[in-house]
Every structure is written in C-alpha cells, then in structure tokens.
Amino acid sequence: MAATSLFSNFVASPRSLSQNSSLRCLVPASSAAFPTTRKYGAAVVRATQSDTVVEYGRKELISLTRPLHDYILQNIREPEVLRELREETMATMKGEETSVSPDQAQLLSMLVQIHGAKNCIEVGVFNGYSSLAIALALPEDGHLVACERDAQCVEFAKRYYKRAGVDHKVDLRHGLAVDALNSLLERGDIDKYDFAFVDADKVMYPTYYEILLKLVRTGGLIVLDDVLWSGKVADTSANDAITSSIRELNKNIFQDKRVNISMVPIGTGMTICRKL
Ligand SMILES: C[S@@+](CC[C@H](N)C(=O)[O-])C[C@H]1O[C@@H](n2cnc3c(N)ncnc32)[C@H](O)[C@@H]1O
C-alpha cells in the first residue's frame, strides 16, 4: 500500500510501507507539538520541505491472521455468561459481527479494573456483550449508564444483565445516545464518570466525544471503538463518508491537547483517551 497522503495536511513518505520494514509515522506540518526534527530512540527522522517523516525503528509487525486471532481467542478468559450471550446472538440476531470481540471485551474489563472505575458510560449496547463485560468488572456499588436506540437490543441486553446478576449496576437508556448523554449533563453529572466506551453511529463520535469530555473526570478514560475501520483509514482509495469521518476524528483526537492517547490495533481498532 503506497503511503500517499491520508490527510491533506500530512506528508507521505516516498517509499511504501510494504517496501520498507521500518515503522513510520506521518507527522502534520502544522502541529506545534512536533518540531521538524525529532529522534525516537533509534528511530530515524528525515525532514522534507515543510513536513517531517519519522521512521520508528525496525520493530517487527504482526499481521493478525485468522489462525493467530483464533490463538488469541483460545487464551481469553471469557466468563461463561458472556460466552452464552455471544452464542445466543450468533444463533438468533443479525449483526453479531458488530459486537466487540472477546479480546476487546477482556481489555475493556481490564481497563475498568486497573482504573478502579465505579461510574461508567457506554454508547451503543447492541446485544450487551461489551456493557456486560464492563458491568462484571465493576464493583458491587459500581454504575454503568448504557445507551441504545434499538428496543430489541435493549430487551436482549437486559435479560443478560439479569442472568449475570449485574442488572442493579446498569441503567440502560432506550433512545438516542445524544439525548441520554445530554440528560446526564443537565442533571449535573460533570466530571462524574471514570470510564466511557463509545461504539455506536460513527458520524456522531465527535459529538459523543465532546460531551463525554465534560462527563468524564480528569484522569478518566474515553475509549472509542472502530478507529481503524477494518484498516480502511489507511487505504487511500477508501473515501466513503464513514471512513472519512473516522480519519477526521482520529486526526482531531491526535491533535487534542486535552487528552493522552493510545491507538490500539485490537478488533477494528480502539483509541484509549485519558482526560488531562
Ligand atoms: C456496534 S453496535 C454496539 C456493540 C456493543 N458495544 C458490543 O460490543 O456488544 C452499535 C449499537 O449502537 C446502536 N446505536 C447506533 N446509533 C445510535 C444512537 N444514535 N443512539 C443510540 N444507540 C445507537 C445500534 O443500535 C447498535 O446496537
């Protein structure tokens, strides 16, 4: 894949990634955070006329093949109730592929636990797989506000919260997520939440992100799913509305000084943002 400009203000390397085993990053010309010459350990930095191309050493990259992903999944400690939920989804619901993968759910639950999160939000519940993983990771007095517009999904998820014995932790809001989030703002939940997970309509991500930055406390996490969009964000021939909106979001979050970030290539890509 030729690394030609992904974003209008990013510069492309003259060599393609596939021709070169080194890792590289396209750095925005205008970003004040980056001087034109930088060193990342052994990484090589080359300056072009107005932009910078950074080579990040020669760390080996793994392509996540199906057998390798199967191997990872065999090493997941998936709670029984989540496995049952997943299997019933596959047997009875359409769109099971939109749910996070078990390795993603395990990471979400680990983040909640590491963070000692008590108050959480999820935007986009579907069958309840990720929200149940979060609820199971919460302490007994933990609380998750979960937003979902589809009535059938709401009923399915509620059944599993009950089966897992965590229904007392989950406040499932049926309706548009933006309305639910705004109602939290209106009732004064500013800086109240420790953790938020966004996995719904992609074009609304910037709106959810801005509202969540108000609802989440300093040091709290906002995790956004699908940020690599099956790799389409790096495919210059993919310019559909959703891919373009995710690229724009990724660029804006990269430049957003209100958060620390880590983009993790798990599932279809997750960005973990920590509010500063
Ligand atoms: C990708 S699925 C969520 C999967 C879920 N997080 C999981 O991993 O199990 C997206 C869900 O968001 C819901 N959704 C999409 N747009 C929404 C909106 N504007 N308000 C509320 N829910 C929405 C859809 O109905 C769908 O169930």
UniProtKB/TrEMBL annotation:
Cited PROSITE patterns: SAM_OMT_I
GO biological process, one term: methylation
GO molecular function, one term: O-methyltransferase activity
The UniProt record lists the keyword Calcium: no
CDD domains: AdoMet_MTases
Top-level taxon of the source organism: Eukaryota
Pfam family, one: Methyltransf_3
Keyword set includes Aminoacyl-tRNA synthetase: no
UniProtKB keywords: Methyltransferase, S-adenosyl-L-methionine, Transferase
Family, similarity comment: Belongs to the class I-like SAM-binding methyltransferase superfamily. Cation-dependent O-methyltransferase family.
Protein's name according to its UniProt entry: Caffeoyl-CoA O-methyltransferase
